[in-house]
Design a protein that fits this description.
single chain, 543 residues, alpha+beta, Copper Amine Oxidase, Chain A, domain 1, 2 domains, 12-stranded mixed sheet, 5-stranded antiparallel sheet, 17 helices, 24 strands, 36% helix, 31% strand, signal, Copper amine oxidase N-terminal domain-containing protein, Cu_amine_oxidase-like_N, coiled coil
């Protein structure tokens, strides 16, 4: 466990490097790179396009999977998200058009959002999918404790409404909070070892723009020392860190009344804001805690270099790299960017944890173009349809019900059914462990609990005549089965057939013959080896 925790911190360092590669604490070629990064925090509105591409680097000879697993792996091993048309007005109002490519398959989509909801239209979907912002907030851990404090009768968060002035004040303070904290972190960033800035003309969304072209790169061997030098810079400037924390306190305190009106307990989220007399001491304690935390992390990194040298060298090798090309205009707005990351660990002999076969690495590339930065942007309107499906409704559906929301000949239907097999149902029952276990009769006939099995298949049961007559309705196969306790006869969609064993009640639980029942619902039954040499009964069907 200790060994893994050390390795986990090493991988966190790699992630941090990916996020900060393109920055520097000093101007290069006349471009203040730190100011450029701070400027990106102030971009609220823009039009643009973006792509994000992800690949798992594979050793095909080592895959050794079934054809079904290979088909699924083909989907997830190469993913590309393309946003051709982005219109962002502010944090609440935006629209996106693009496509998602999974292997050789692609799905077009449109997404429009406002303060109330996000509306997603997928190619092949019969109805739009609606995500209500209130429900999104309720699922957010940070705000979970806030919205869960009081619930209205219908179960929706009871959130006080803020005035427009309060909302604007809160939004402004939130932006200042981000700029304050990020500003301190950005100011301390060191330059990568390899960085170059040169004037250029670049085509950005069809427009020729005079820009400064910033090229930066870190190899795997350079990432570790770069991160450590950043840590040294952070802990060496306690005075500016102190000013940053004081500014955060002031910002939060200035919004206490507004946050209180919204039902937010600032103390539970941000901690207790000290009174003026205790402010200096509290800030000093916070500074010391942060500095000590950074020092401890650096010590862990240095310890890993000594004790886990093979692991560190395997991750941070010459085939691991981070590259960035940024095109910056005269206002220090990043108009175009291309960021590429490759992590390709080398093998460590005798170390099973470093064996990633058949995956040999990952590769990520992100590109972005922006125009009309902070201009007057008009996103496509988010129209909430009356017949739209909510995300909650999707989560409550059986797999076959999800499939019915898509056209049979659509790419989305094909992926969900034939690659992801979401309409496949599988039930495991254990003679020793299940609460209502399968029963094998002296004649070798397997019986299964009717209600438990039906519920898990998504079918419904109605009992009449004090439970002696039972009607089952399976929406998935449009099948109705009528049964009577103690009888072998079953009426399946009105046609009477004889089953191998009568409907039987055991300890208050109704049992039916497994093979007859499951066959009537389009499935199959078989026994399979389980752990500890036990057998389990498997009920399976794909709709």
């Amino acid at each position: 466990m200790v060994k893994w925790m050390k390795r986990k911190s090493v991988l966190a360092v790699m992630l941090a490097a990916v996020m900060m590669i393109a920055a520097g604490c000093q101007a290069v070629g006349g471009v203040d790179l730190n100011q450029m990064l701070k400027q990106t925090l102030k971009v609220g509105a823009y039009e643009g396009s973006q792509t994000l591409e992800f690949k798992l680097l594979m050793d095909e000879g080592e895959l050794g999977a079934s054809e079904e697993d290979k088909a699924l792996f083909d989907l997830i091993s190469h993913i590309k998200l393309t946003l051709d048309d982005i219109k962002v007005k502010d944090a609440e109002n935006a629209s996106f058009k693009g496509k998602l490519e999974l292997g050789k398959k692609q799905i077009g989509f449109k997404l429009a959002m406002n303060a109330e909801a996000a509306v997603l239209e997928l190619d092949g979907a019969k109805k739009p999918i609606v995500l209500e912002v209130a429900n999104l907030m309720a699922s957010n851990e940070l705000f979970g404790q806030v919205v869960d404090q009081e619930l209205s009768i219908d179960g929706k968060p009871d959130q006080p409404e803020l005035t427009q002035d309060q909302e604007e004040s809160l939004a402004k303070a939130g932006q200042q909070l981000i700029e304050t904290v990020a500003g301190y972190a950005i100011d301390k960033l060191p330059n990568p070892a390899r960085i170059k800035v040169s004037p250029a003309q670049e085509t950005v969304r069809g427009e020729n723009v005079n820009v400064m072209h910033v090229q930066a790169e870190l190899s795997g061997k350079e990432i570790y020392p770069w991160i450590k030098s950043y840590m040294d810079a952070l802990v060496s400037d306690k005075e500016n860190l102190r000013k940053t924390i004081a500014a955060v306190y002031d910002l939060v305190q200035s919004q206490e009344d507004v946050l209180g009106s919204a039902g937010v307990d600032t103390e539970s989220i941000f901690g207790s804001i000290p009174e003026e007399d205790d402010r200096s001491k509290a800030i000093d304690e916070a500074v010391n805690e942060i500095v000590q935390g950074i020092a401890d992390l650096k010590q862990e990194m240095e310890q890993a270099e000594k004790e886990e040298a093979d692991f560190v060298n395997a991750i941070f090798n010459e085939e691991t790299f981070v590259k960035a090309d940024l095109f910056v205009d005269s206002k220090l707005d990043v108009r175009k960017s291309v960021i590429e990351v490759s992590v390709k660990p080398s093998a460590v002999e005798g170390d099973e944890e470093m064996s990633f076969s058949p995956i040999t690495g990952i590769w990520i590339k992100a590109t972005s173009e922006k125009s009309n930065v902070n201009g007057d942007i008009k996103p496509d309107e988010a129209v909430i349809p009356k017949d739209g499906l909510t995300v909650e409704q999707f989560f409550d559906m059986q797999g076959y019900q999800v499939l019915r929301q898509f056209d049979n000949n659509s790419v989305m239907y094909d992926i969900l059914r034939n690659q992801m097999h979401i309409s496949r149902q599988q039930i495991h029952m254990y003679p020793e462990y299940s609460s209502n276990p399968p029963i094998i009769t002296p004649a070798g006939i397997t019986l299964i609990p009717l209600r438990d099995t039906s519920d898990r298949l998504g079918a419904t049961i109605k009992a009449t005549d004090k439970g002696k007559s039972i009607t089952l309705r399976d929406d998935a196969t449009s099948t109705t089965i009528e049964l009577k306790s103690g009888s072998k006869q079953a009426a399946i969609n009105g046609k009477t057939v004889n089953w191998s064993f009568p409907v039987t009640v055991v300890d208050g639980v109704t049992y039916v013959p497994a093979r007859d029942f499951v066959k009537a619902l389009g499935g199959k039954v078989y026994w399979e080896d389980s752990y500890d040499d036990e057998k389990m009964l498997v009920i399976e069907r794909e709709l």
